[in-house]
Write a structure and sequence with these properties.
The chain has 163 residues and is mainly alpha-helical. It has seven helices and no strands. The N and C termini lie close together (11 Å).
């Protein structure tokens, strides 16, 4: 039985990572830059359903950032770590108000991504403006897409995330 749970965890992690990376890369023009709506961030609700989402989101973000031309080391490392941090917090608050689930992804990325854009890409020093634009893009992805995803998954959780 223990092997089955471990295999399921690894499989869920891999599937989540693949979906995150594929969505990010397929929608690349919208997934990067100062005015971004990274649709794959809608998956930020997944830690509610499975702990495998925490490494899955991190790995998927790292793969997407590592395989995109022009993405530098800071974005690969700190962008991915921001996703990991947000996923961990989401996992920790999963038993609270469901409307708080997307909030860690919105806030963490709104504060980390502008720093990356300024330091790595030489975007003019407009941290608070970038925090606003990235935060709005994150809110669109996480709330407008992520919460409907949450409701669909929640309705089917016994089939999709059975233990």
């Amino acid at each position: 039985m223990k092997h089955t749970n471990k295999a399921r965890f690894i499989t869920e992690t891999a599937v989540i990572a693949a979906i995150y990376a594929a969505l990010t890369l397929a929608l690349a023009p919208f997934s990067f830059g100062p005015m971004q709506v990274r649709v794959s961030e809608a998956l930020c609700v997944l830690p509610f359903f499975t702990p495998a989402a925490v490494p899955g989101l991190f790995i998927g973000c790292f793969i997407a950032n590592a395989t995109t031309a022009g993405i530098g080391v800071l974005d690969m490392v700190f962008g991915s770590l921001a996703t990991l941090c947000a996923a961990l917090v989401t996992y920790k608050i999963r038993n609270g108000n469901k409307w708080l689930l997307p909030l860690p992804s919105v806030l963490v990325n709104a504060f980390v991504v502008p720093w990356i854009l300024i330091v790595q890409y030489g975007v003019p020093d407009a941290y608070f403006y970038l925090a606003l634009t990235v935060g709005v893009g994150q809110a669109i992805a996480c709330y407008a897409i992520g919460m409907p995803l949450y409701y669909v998954l929640h309705r089917n959780r016994r089939v999709l995330f059975a233990r």
